[in-house]
């Protein structure tokens, strides 16, 4: 299953995967990848200015067009000495970062090749030029990014193989073994070949008076800067009359290629002793294997779960964080953010945990991000929950939710017993619509959908209006819809400025049956707190639902990390009740 197929599988879940992210939303996430929140702790405040600068930088960047969910995707390409693995973060259809997870290529050349990363991000395209002098490495990075975003595999051979060498060729080592020098050489001109970074490298060695008189590089495929740097070891060879010299830092492959080529030329001129390259190549083979193991810092093929897309949700800072984890070939290939309501700046910072999971292929020992603790913890727990789902599927267990239908069935039974001729035509029509929705919800597998159906049907029953109006005669409160405005005041933390909160509250038969249109006139960063207070999260019940269940704003639990907004909603309901209270006979006179 490639990433394109993954995308197709995700489309039916579009309503679920909509950005609340992440992204949200990982897009994301794996994202869309989010309603901003106002920092409620000092811990998460300092980077707001940094986030602002990043937004300003984005104005000049090319617009992305990658049709992928927000999240982090993993891909592999073929470099000079072996595989190059990257993680690519997508947000709002743009590449926002590319991280190298592992590489077997020489550090000096690979560092140069990384220049393509800036080109890709700046242009939001994979159609960029390779880096001169680091062609194979830069091409490998481009292919790895392409694999991450499209699923297209890079089946090309390594640069070493293309230049006639194996992956364990001498040119891939950072050192060469010592050899026994010949006692003397026959005068003449001799040619020898080796392998530099870019391919074959050839030298001409002149012997005069039985000594090495000069060495010239007559052919090479390496970049001029690197070959010039490596050529400095020629003076060392001539001065020592030996090829047992150190390679040049920053031009390792080219240095090794020169030494190989000189040794081959000297082997033709040797009077006695040995100067062939066999031992050298074998040594380099061993060195390369250990070097490759050291460089390979990413783990692949270790996830013991069945291929597929798995979903997980957990509580972030201001609401739920949901992810989709894509598993292919026993590897976590991508983590998409499907829902998120946390502040963008903090959530982007928290995305580091997603990159760590992609890199290590595990969730153990992945620390939360300082300064974005709640967001990163939410992401990590959502990923863990998705992997728990994967474990169940692998073990043949069902992951279908079995929601509690008790309340829904009781409400449906209650609604079906009501008599149409007692109520107004409008209120009865609303009830029938909600009743039909509730009956359909009996077939749903998600508890959240069932709970919403319960709330809507309960509200419709409470909003029924009697035709003769007798129900109103003995009520304490005058039924109707009231708009109220109250102040939302900071607590002792004083982490936001006071603002006005407005909402509509409906009263029927001495009960609050509906609270809607809750808005604040302050900073937009307050919106997520208002939403959290009103609706709650997957693990915390919002104050609106609690009030409607009880019919009154009494004994209501405020929502953690949205306490001020919760109290403002409660205060608004109390104010409406005072306004709606029916005057006594004496007051009326």
TrEMBL record:
One Pfam family, please name it. Answer: FMN_bind
Ranges for region Disordered:
272-299
What sections of the sequence does the record tag as coiled-coil? Answer: none
**Compositional bias (Low complexity) spans?**
280-297
A single Gene Ontology molecular function, please? Answer: FMN binding
Q: Which residues form the FMN-binding domain?
A: 79-152, 196-269, 316-390, 498-580
**Cellular component GO terms, alphabetical:** membrane
UniProt protein name = FMN-binding protein
């Amino acid at each position: 299953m490639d990433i394109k197929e993954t995308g197709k599988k995700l489309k039916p879940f579009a309503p679920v995967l909509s950005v609340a992210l992440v992204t949200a939303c990982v897009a994301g996430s794996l994202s869309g990848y989010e309603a901003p929140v106002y920092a409620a702790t000092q811990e998460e405040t300092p980077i707001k200015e940094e986030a602002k600068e990043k937004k300003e930088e984005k104005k000049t960047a090319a617009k992305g067009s990658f049709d992928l969910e927000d999240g982090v995707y993993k891909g592999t390409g073929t470099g000079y000495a072996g595989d190059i693995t990257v993680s690519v973060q997508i947000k709002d259809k743009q590449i926002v970062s590319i991280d190298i997870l592992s590489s077997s290529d020489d550090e000096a050349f690979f560092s140069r090749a990384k220049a393509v990363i800036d080109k890709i991000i700046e242009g939001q395209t994979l159609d960029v030029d390779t880096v001169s002098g680091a062609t194979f490495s830069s091409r490998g990075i481009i292919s790895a990014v392409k694999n991450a975003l499209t699923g297209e595999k890079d089946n090309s051979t390594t640069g070493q193989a293309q230049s006639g060498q194996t992956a364990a060729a001498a040119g891939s080592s950072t050192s060469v073994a010592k050899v026994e020098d010949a006692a003397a050489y026959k005068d003449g001109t001799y040619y020898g070949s080796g392998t530099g970074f870019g391919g074959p490298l050839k030298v001409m060695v002149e012997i005069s008076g039985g000594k090495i008189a000069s060495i010239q590089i007559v052919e090479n495929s390496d970049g001029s800067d690197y070959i010039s740097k490596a050529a400095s070891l020629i003076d060392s060879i001539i001065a020592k009359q030996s090829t047992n010299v150190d390679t040049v830092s920053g031009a390792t492959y080219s240095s090794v290629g020169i030494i190989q080529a000189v040794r081959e030329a000297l082997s033709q001129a040797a009077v006695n002793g040995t100067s062939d390259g066999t031992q050298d190549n074998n040594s380099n083979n061993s060195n390369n294997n250990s070097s490759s193991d050291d460089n390979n810092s990413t783990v692949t093929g270790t996830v013991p779960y069945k291929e597929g897309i798995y979903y997980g949700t957990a509580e972030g800072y201001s609401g739920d964080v949901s992810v989709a984890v894509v598993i292919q070939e026993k590897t976590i290939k991508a983590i998409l953010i499907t829902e998120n309501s946390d502040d963008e700046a903090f959530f982007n910072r928290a995305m580091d945990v997603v990159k760590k999971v992609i890199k290590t292929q595990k969730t153990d020992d992945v620390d939360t991000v300082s300064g974005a603790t709640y967001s990163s913890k939410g992401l990590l727990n959502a990923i863990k929950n998705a992997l728990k789902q994967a474990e169940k599927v692998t073990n043949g267990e069902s992951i279908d939710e079995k929601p509690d239908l008790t309340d829904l069935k009781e409400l449906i039974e209650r609604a079906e017993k009501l008599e149409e001729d007692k109520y107004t035509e409008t209120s009865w029509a609303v009830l029938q619509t909600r009743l039909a929705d509730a009956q359909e919800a009996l077939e749903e597998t998600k508890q959240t959908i069932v709970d919403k159906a319960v709330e809507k049907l309960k509200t419709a029953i409470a909003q029924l209006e009697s035709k003769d109006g007798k129900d109103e005669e003995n009520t304490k409160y005058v039924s109707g819809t009231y708009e109220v405005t109250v102040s939302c005041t900071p607590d002792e933390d004083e982490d936001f400025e006071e603002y006005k909160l407005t909402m509509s509250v409906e009263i029927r038969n001495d009960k609050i049956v509906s609270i809607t249109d809750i808005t604040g006139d302050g900073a937009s960063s307050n919106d997520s707190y208002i939403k959290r207070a009103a609706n709650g999260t997957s693990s915390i019940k919002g104050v609106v639902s609690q009030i409607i269940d009880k019919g009154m704003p009494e004994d209501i639990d405020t929502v953690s990390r949205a306490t001020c907004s919760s109290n403002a909603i409660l205060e608004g309901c109390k104010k409406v009740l005072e306004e709606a209270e029916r005057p006594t006979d004496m007051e009326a006179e």
